[in-house]
Write the structure tokens for this entry.
Amino acid sequence: MAHSLDITVVGGGMITYDLILPSLYHLQRTGIVNKISVCSLDSVPLKILRNSKEITEAFPGQDFQAYPSLSVPENEKYPDLYKEVIARMKPRQVVVVAMPDQLHYPVIMEALKHNQHILCVKPLVLKYEQTVEIEKTALERGLFIGVEYHKRFDRRALIAKRSYALRHFGDFIIGEAKLIEPYFYRSSNFQNWFTCDNTDPFVYIGCHYVDLVYFITGLKPVEISVSGVKGKFPNGNEGYMWTNGRVRFENSALLSVTNGLGYPDQAAGSNEQNLQMFFEGNNRTGMLKHDDQFRGVEHSYLEGIGCGGSFFNYVSPDFYRVVPWEGPGFKPIGYGFESVAAIVGMAHRIENDTADLSVAESLGKRREMIKEVDEKGIIATPANSYINELVIEAARLSILNNGETALIEYEPRPHVKLR
Ligand SMILES: NC(=O)c1ccc[n+]([C@@H]2O[C@H](COP(=O)([O-])OP(=O)(O)OC[C@H]3O[C@@H](n4cnc5c(N)ncnc54)[C@H](O)[C@@H]3O)[C@@H](O)[C@H]2O)c1
């Protein structure tokens, strides 16, 4: 067996707190993960992670190495510290990229330079050309990159993918997807970066459902038009609060995608999300409908401990929860955990299967295994999910041009342009 892998998480914000660190702690218990380091811009989020009652109760006795140290003043910034931390790692361990979207590219390139496998939260990067460069560099060095599109690991998506391949539905022809995040997001750190020039709800969350339709059907998007409604954040910054996008796929099928930062805080939430798809068959049609919000569990609390301070909540048992188990503390369950486990587990398997090979044989075998993952199309990789970077580029082009249609052309080389 290969030794368990050391992990450096770069970025200590919401996604690290809610999903990444707890998942890594559980993988540490199972022997996949060895030492965990978390590197952040400053010490503030690291203190929150270290002092979290929720995390320490679930994972008693487990800890991470903090960079910078928790004792440095909170206002001191360390934007380049991740480079030193990555440079000190043993080769072919795992770097987790969990910082704001526009910073993924430099961290990924740094990790590749130091021969590290990578788990990157979505989106991998914001430009198609960067994906191509990343894929090429990683393959040359035999390094595995998994992009954490966790909706792919939701059982209903996996079932749909299999059923579509078995032609139980017919050909996808038209569909609707919705994902509306809570209103309280507007008063979070979002107001500092979720501005019109940086991003919009389609790019931030709509891309999950475009990826999902691609995941289920294998159809590539070819045309996108996104319109937005602007609003002001509490700090006065202007952002797109709502968007509606229309995506046409290579077989002419259409998907309408509605997104926003505005699910009522007082509602049962925690957000609104669903997908419905219609299909054409022989003399009849097929359909699938996923309610991704209400998954059949309702809780009414004595205090307002629900999402957004609510008393009554729809609770998803499917994405991520910690629950009692036979071992110490609690264990994570759900497709969020399964997605992290699949990506880190794949890096571990690659190292395990090549541990006893010569340098040249190991490189050849690692490349072969990476290509198998690309081909399988379950874990998102630069090679099998590059349509997402094209979709993001096209969506930004469209929304900044008042909803004009942007085209994604795949020949002779994938690129995006206004119609
Ligand atoms: N459903 C999903 O897949 C999902 C959900 C939430 C977030 N995300 C993605 O996760 C990423 C992070 O989002 P978040 O919500 O955690 O953001 P956040 O603002 O809560 O956290 C960002 C973190 O990055 C750190 N950071 C910034 N610059 C740094 C630097 N130079 N060196 C080290 N750390 C640095 C900050 O200290 C902060 O801890 C984004 O790419 C986002 O799109 C994905």
